User: Which sequence fits this backbone?
């Protein structure tokens, strides 16, 4: 660093941002962090304030705690390293964990490109990895071994399997830690082109999974951010498989956010990418049912029926050796459940109840989260047909799954919908006590 400019000014200018532009970025980032619950009160930034922080005059004004969070997220450095210390003393407290780059940043700042360090400066390893990175990982000759990448790939597969059984609420934090470590390997390690491609593919796999786990945990803003990052990575690297998977995830989330038209666009774009890599039929079946869910949400019966037929036609062609791991959950039971959800959104409660009941009966223990989602929809469908006894039975099974470890926030949210549906029937047999059980679970 040159002696006549502060580190903060160096980092800002390395991004080719004026003070006015940086202040606009900081205010925008502050709003996002408030929305995500990572800061309590939204701080405000001004050019005058930034000029004081960048000044070589000491002591510089020490920022408020919420302001420090935003500064550290933006510059990806602890405020002490930026030259901001209380009363000019040494820093205190643990540094804020560096977040992933924002989706709206420039292409060169996307974390999956090898140019990130040149644009933003080398990042220190996350605090919980400090001990392991002070040795070989921080040296200039840290050679990445293939078995390291394979272990991480296996960890990604394990997390996806755990999500299917227990839900993603307890998985997004460890997945984020793994993703940060992969970024560290990409930025600091030495590897050949082939292994580099595997590392970037692994980063994309972790990122789209992280988006899914965040979505399943009810963290929709974070989920959309991670999906955007994964899609950026897919576009930059020409990874049509990652693009197909990510857009499929985005379509599913859009349905839950009541954005049916957006879900249709995502599903169709995913189909375009699937065609580019000659995707097997399990992929095309999944994308067809994702499109059907979008049509159902906007009430387009004709288009929904057509997409459902395509999904079953593709699925019935059977499995393929090329089926990616993210489609293995799509068994007969799951596809029936997804069709049942479409029927429920279309108001076809009788057909929905039949499909959902059969799906729930056949779903295996490895897909307990999906079974829980199916049970919640089955309960709602049974209410719609006036079959309160079956609604009560399905709800009790869903509650038992939650109590025995299934941690999906989506499944819990579905129980809240069931509670609203059953409340008018509180005088029916077993309903009053069941309402108390639901409140205990969702509290």
Assistant:
């Amino acid at each position: 660093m040159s002696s006549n400019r502060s580190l903060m000014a160096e980092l800002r200018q390395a991004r080719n941002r004026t003070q006015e532009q940086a202040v606009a970025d900081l205010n925008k980032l502050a709003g996002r962090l408030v929305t995500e619950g990572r800061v309590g009160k939204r701080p405000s930034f001004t050019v005058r304030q930034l000029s004081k922080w960048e000044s070589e005059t000491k002591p510089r004004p020490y920022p408020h705690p919420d302001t420090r969070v935003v500064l550290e997220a933006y510059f990806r450095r602890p405020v002490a390293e930026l030259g901001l210390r209380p009363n000019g003393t040494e820093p205190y407290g643990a540094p804020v964990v560096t977040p992933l780059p924002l989706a709206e940043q420039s292409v060169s700042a996307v974390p999956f490109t090898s140019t990130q360090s040149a644009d933003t400066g080398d990042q220190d390893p996350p605090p919980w990895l400090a001990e392991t990175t002070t040795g070989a990982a921080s040296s200039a000759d840290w050679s990445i071994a293939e078995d390291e990448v394979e272990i991480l790939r296996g960890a990604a597969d394990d997390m996806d399997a755990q999500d299917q059984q227990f839900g993603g609420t307890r998985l997004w934090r460890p997945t984020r830690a793994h993703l940060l470590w992969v970024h560290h390997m990409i930025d600091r390690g030495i590897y050949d082109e082939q292994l580099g491609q595997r590392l970037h593919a692994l980063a994309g796999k972790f990122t789209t999974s992280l988006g899914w786990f965040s979505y399943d945990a009810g963290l929709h803003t974070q989920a959309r951010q991670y999906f955007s990052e994964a899609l950026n990575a897919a576009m930059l690297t020409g990874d049509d498989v990652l693009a197909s998977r990510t857009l499929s995830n985005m379509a599913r989330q859009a349905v839950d956010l009541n954005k049916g038209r957006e879900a249709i666009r995502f599903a169709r774009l995913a189909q375009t990418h699937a065609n580019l890599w000659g995707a097997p039929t399990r992929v095309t079946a999944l994308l067809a049912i994702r499109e059907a869910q979008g049509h159902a949400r906007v009430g387009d019966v004709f288009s929904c029926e057509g997409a459902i037929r395509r999904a079953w036609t593709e699925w019935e062609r059977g499995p393929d050796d090329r089926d990616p791991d993210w489609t293995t959950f799509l068994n007969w039971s799951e596809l029936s459940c997804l069709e049942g959800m479409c029927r429920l959104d279309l108001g076809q409660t009788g057909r929905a109840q039949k499909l959902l009941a059969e799906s729930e009966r056949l779903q295996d223990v490895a897909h307990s989260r999906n079974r829980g989602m199916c049970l919640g929809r089955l309960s709602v469908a049974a209410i719609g047909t006036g079959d309160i006894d079956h609604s009560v039975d399905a709800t009790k099974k869903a509650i038992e799954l939650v109590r025995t470890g299934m941690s999906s926030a989506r499944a819990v949210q579905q129980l809240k919908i069931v509670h609203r549906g059953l409340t008018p029937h509180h005088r029916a047999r077993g309903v009053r006590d069941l309402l108390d059980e639901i409140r205990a679970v969702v509290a």
Summary: Residues 88-139 have pLDDT under 50 and may be disordered. The first helix runs from residue 7 to 14. The radius of gyration is 25 Å. The chain has 20 helices and no strands.
